[in-house]
Specification:
The complex is a heterodimer of chains A (300) and B (396). Chain A is mostly helical and 300 residues long. Chain A is 71% helix and 1% strand. Chain A contains 12 helices and 2 strands; from the N terminus they run αααααααααααββα. The chains are: A mainly alpha (300), B alpha+beta (396). At the A-B interface, helix 8 and helix 9 of A face strand 6, helix 2 and helix 4 of B.
Chain lengths: 300, 396
Amino acid sequence: MSATPIAPTPVSPTTAHLVGRRRSARKRRAGRVGINALALLVFVVMVFPVYWMVSTAFKTGPDIFGYTPTWFPIHATFANFGDAIHRQYFWRDVANSLIVVVAVVIISLVLALLAALALAKFRFYGRRAFIVLIIAVQMIPLNALIIPLYIALSRAHEVNKLSGVIITYLTFVLPFTIWTLRGFIIGVPKDLEEAAMVDGATRFGAFVRILLPLVGPGLVATSIFAFIQAWNEYIIAYVFLSSPTKQTLTVWLASFTTNRGTAWGPLMAAATLTSLPVVVFFVLVQRKIAFGLTAGAVRG
Amino acid sequence: MGQIEFQNVTKLYGETPAVRDLTLTVHEGEFVVLVGPSGCGKTTALRMVAGLEEITDGEIRIGERVVNDLPPRQRDIAMVFQNYALYPHKSVYDNLAFGLRMRKIAKGEQRRRVEEIARVLGIEDLLARKPAQLSGGQRQRVAMGRAIVREPQAFLMDEPLSNLDAKLRVQMRAEIARIQQTLGVTTLYVTHDQVEAMTMGHRVAVMRGGILQQVDAPQRLYHAPRNLFVASFVGSPAMNLLEGEVVRTNGGVSCKLGQAELELPAGGSPVERYAGRRVAVGIRPEELSEAGADARARLTGRVLLVESLGAESLAHLELSATPLDRPELADLAAPSAPLLGEATATVRARLAADTRVRPGDIVDLAVDPRKLYFFDLDSGEAIRAAESAVPTAVAG
């Protein structure tokens, strides 16, 4: 290859540098505006249905059914909430939902913590296979399992009982919670428990005083997950719980749609009420999700 | 305060031995450093004392008690971990007080002891902070404090300085040695850094492949290494090791290193037994100097590199001699770069700071034949007269 010497255009290096920098700064600003606009769009798309639900709950009949959409409930009313609360089975089903959720959250946390401890701390035959299995079962769509689950539960006389639904929810909440907690436990250095044991704690004492507080954020994260899953689940509850006194809130919401149409106002009010506990629970516990709590334990 | 005693201690992981037949006593108030390359079993030995690792065979005593089957909390020892292992969710105060609380010591006494230790270590201002808000050196101090405040029978330290930067390490090294001296607590200290071992320990135990090689005072370890491994491991820069031949000359014995022939002092040198055989020859870098006109024993080499260290210069030279090639030296010996063909070895010499030697120069180095170390090529053991033999590794 012959080297052809090319004379460089005599541009002052500082000028070229400045121009380049100004151009790249402009490009960067444009990029940032673009990303922000996109984020705003995503935000609007996600939030709008929630806003529409809440605003419709406060609207009067004409505002709901009018051909021109009412973006903001100017003539706000609480009548829809009254209708929803006084509808049959509301309090009964609130209680049912609470029983299911509390049971699922507590049982799943206890079982998952123990299982995750075993998976994270002990070497046993089949451990690897078990871990793979935990991921694999999450790939099976829930809807495909409804019929086999129904048959299995009906043989065990667990259909149309809250306990049957609780067991079913646990089957799909547990794999995720075990997997997540295992990650949190692995993240706590072994040295910490050993230090506690040398310092005078028993193995169990080291677990309670050192490991448990450090896995706390994981417990919070998984309990939120379990809460949301159990509270919002519809299909299983709808199929397995046939009598209205045994239903959960999500199934009760479906009762607003009848042969004569859908009572949109009360339905949206009921849906808003149903969403509230999840929001409240999240707000209460989210401050505890302080990731990276183990920072400073060991050199990072 | 008590002594720590290993008696024929063995640890197997499955079939693989991590520690083999270790017998060693750390006397009351003594500071013993376990040193060796990674995987030599030193940390395993320490963890067995702490009760964090089961003992496969043998006995460990702390004070008068056999502790083989005691859980860590009943052994009355304190440990400083390599990663400090501070409890991240607890404040510095609670970290320090944890051990006292576990031992149900009264609140007032807890406070008094924690505050006293904090003052000694200069961390009084940090008591309310969490470990994440501390610098590396401060964390190190807290970890030390957590061990000291317990007033245990013995300290166990697992490479406590390895996470600090070089400057802080030197500072903390002195501080730990000082604290140990003041408190007089029996201490077993693990490190892979031989400089740390030599500067801190009353005695140093060198391990390799799970086997104790030699236990001795640092000076003795340096001047009378029992075998090739200890010779190459102890000292910085490391001892130059070459292969030579012992030959009988008229009236005495000489050592042939390449073309050079160094006449050994007359008078029953133990190396005489090796006349006509090849041996490993060790020369400490400080025993090599630029040869004056009167120097009788000299080695000639070509300078590859001169590193100026301020107070001295470290010259790397290439000699025509056979480099020593043994498995135990693989990760330690000076790299031999055969630039001039097969039979060249690289040696390092500590020269005066104002040396005029430059890379590429051919220089003569003076050697004092009395300062040579000889090792058996088959066993790797030091060749020495029967009476001057170092006491067995089962020291103390």
